[in-house]
Design a protein that fits this description.
This protein is α/β, with parallel strands linked by helices. It contains 13 helices and twelve strands. The chain has two domains: 30-142 and 223-351, TIM Barrel (Alpha-Beta Barrel); 146-207, no CATH class. Helix 1 crosses helix 12 (333-341).
Length: 355
């Protein structure tokens, strides 16, 4: 019998983790973690909210939450936390205001139509403010972003082999091989220059052809248009920038990175007729996806605050141009409650474990 290469591939690991989440959730112990974090700000990152029935086993929907689960999560937040607006956050960071205990800010990345169709009505019904970070190039279009296109080609092309520009060859015969190829794809792109990334993308397109209908799934890849952004803003949403094309900023030249940051801001300000104060780094891991250079560029561009993607709580002393957030995707209710309490993050940190 072939043994798993990594400890987290053992079957008992996943089952044990599920039971552990359930134990914490049902025991009431999570209240202790919430108490100790009561004077910090919890920021949550969502991407897509869709009705049940979307292809949940499709990896492209890994960060999609069903409308049913989204409603449960919002109600859970209202019971245990105090939602705050982006304006309240800015006043607090500027030392001009106070946040309620167990404050939480809800954010949405990328800018898909489902944020307006399915998330907004549920947020509005509960009087919960939010912020949306928008990729500006595909406004009003149905489109896969570059990394989604890569993943889609790797998984749904009929090709059995992908030859990388460095000569490496990756087998694409099983789901496990395809998942490994997707991980390789993104890790590789973090280390490539702009020119190298473009050559790799063009090569991938030539090798891994797709049928026209593959990947064109309504609701998940449709982007908000200008009128939608105005509607979100009119209903309590803060609109922030998320670059023009969702690149890995750290891999770009300084000129290109600054262009992505500044043009996304100016495009949104043209649409809204108002200043855009918030920015979210694509992918968002400090020193991997964005660098100190990019942080400084965001500040120079005139943003008041920027959000990263590393898990953690915001304090008044946090770097306001690299504020941490907790990412929310498909997860059990116990997993959700454990994650946002800070319990999971603390336990992983103490144990030196990954997700």
């Amino acid at each position: 019998m072939k043994l798993p290469k990594y400890w987290y591939e053992w079957r008992w690991y996943g089952r044990g983790k599920t039971l552990f989440f359930q134990m914490l959730y049902r025991s009431g112990l999570l209240g202790i973690f919430r108490f100790f974090r009561r004077n910090t700000l919890l920021v949550l990152t969502y991407h897509d909210v869709l009705p049940p029935g979307f292809p949940e086993n499709n990896f492209l929907f890994g960060e999609t939450v069903t409308t049913d689960e989204f409603e449960w999560q919002l109600d859970f937040i209202r019971r245990h936390y105090n939602p705050v607006s982006f304006s309240q956050l800015l006043e607090w960071l500027d030392g001009k205001g106070h946040l309620p205990p167990r404050a939480v800010l809800l954010t949405f990345d990328d800018g898909h139509v489902n944020n307006l169709q399915y998330a907004l009505p549920r947020l509005k019904q509960r009087g919960m403010p939010f912020a949306c970070f928008i990729v500006t190039a595909p406004l009003g279009e149905r489109k896969l972003l570059w990394f989604e296109e890569g993943y889609c080609r790797i998984f749904f092309s009929d090709a059995k082999l992908w030859r990388l520009q460095n000569g490496e060859q990756l087998q694409l015969e099983t789901s496990k091989q395809k998942a490994l190829a997707c991980a390789t794809f993104f890790t590789m792109f973090r280390g490539l220059s702009e020119a190298e990334q473009e050559r790799e993308i063009q090569s991938l397109r030539c090798q891994l052809a797709l049928q026209e209908s593959v990947g064109c799934i309504p609701g998940r890849f449709e982007f908000l248009d200008a009128a939608d952004l105005l509607a979100l803003r009119a209903n309590g949403g803060e609109i922030g920038a998320h670059t023009v094309t969702h690149p890995i900023l750290a891999s770009l030249s300084t000129k290109s990175a600054v262009d992505e940051i500044e043009r996304s801001k100016s495009r949104l300000e043209d649409v809204l007729g108002a200043p855009v104060k918030a920015f979210a780094y694509p992918f968002g891991m400090p020193q991997l996806d964005f660098s100190t250079r990019d942080r400084e560029s965001v500040q120079k561009a005139g943003f008041a605050v920027a959000f990263a993607a590393n898990a953690g709580f915001v304090t008044a002393a946090s770097d306001r141009f690299a504020l941490p957030r907790f990412n929310i995707g498909r997860m059990s209710r116990a997993h959700f409650a454990t994650t946002i309490s800070g319990a999971l993050d603390l336990i992983k940190s103490l144990a030196g474990l990954d997700n």
